[in-house]
Amino acid sequence: MTVSDKGSPPDVHASASDAGQFIHHHTEFPTTRLSKVLDGVISAIGKSASWLWIVVTGVIIYAVVGRYAFGQGSVTLEEVQWHLAGAGWLLGLGYTLVTDDHVRVDVIHERLSLKGQAWIELFGLVFLLLPFLVLAVYEMIPYAVSSWEQGETSQAPAGLPYRWILKGVLALSFGLLIVAALSRLLKVTALLFGFPKPIRVESGETKKEDAS
């Protein structure tokens, strides 16, 4: 739960003063050794997937020029566009969670103390997000496997083969979301219960060190 510095109540962190030295400037939750590793993996995948948007842009330009300048439309290029766009969007979902940059519609949490926000986050992760993601992955893996076994292809003429790849990316993206949610959960429990042990995160060039 992110609370911006601008316009925040001056005592928004008062109830969590003991954890202040462990709080990351953006997420406002403590960082742990394991969550730091998980965040690094998810962030690397998300940043790599972002390059797909450049490829998508190039394909769109190529398809538009071909269609309107040379009168050569291509079903294959159209499907490449939405396949790549879908993969880029799906693989970026976990990144938005670990960086806390996803859209939130919550007019209550910003009025609460940091620990109050953490309790809401704990409830949401344990009872809402994680059960949904586990169920989704449970259903999506057979969905992708079935597509692979059938050799599923696009139903459009000259469409793309290997439809199972996109369905596999769908399952993978929700698996990455589970990892991101677990990382977030570790940060919440570190703040509320002191476990796992938080580590200090300094801004600028200051070396990161243990809090002890």
From TrEMBL:
Keyword field: Cell inner membrane, Cell membrane, Membrane, Transmembrane, Transmembrane helix, Transport
| Major location category of this protein | membrane
- Pfam (any one): DctQ
Q: How does it sit in the membrane?
A: Multi-pass membrane protein
Indicate the transmembrane segments per the record. 51-70, 82-98, 119-141, 161-182
Can you tell me which family this protein belongs to?
Belongs to the TRAP transporter small permease family.
- The name this protein goes by in its record: TRAP transporter small permease protein
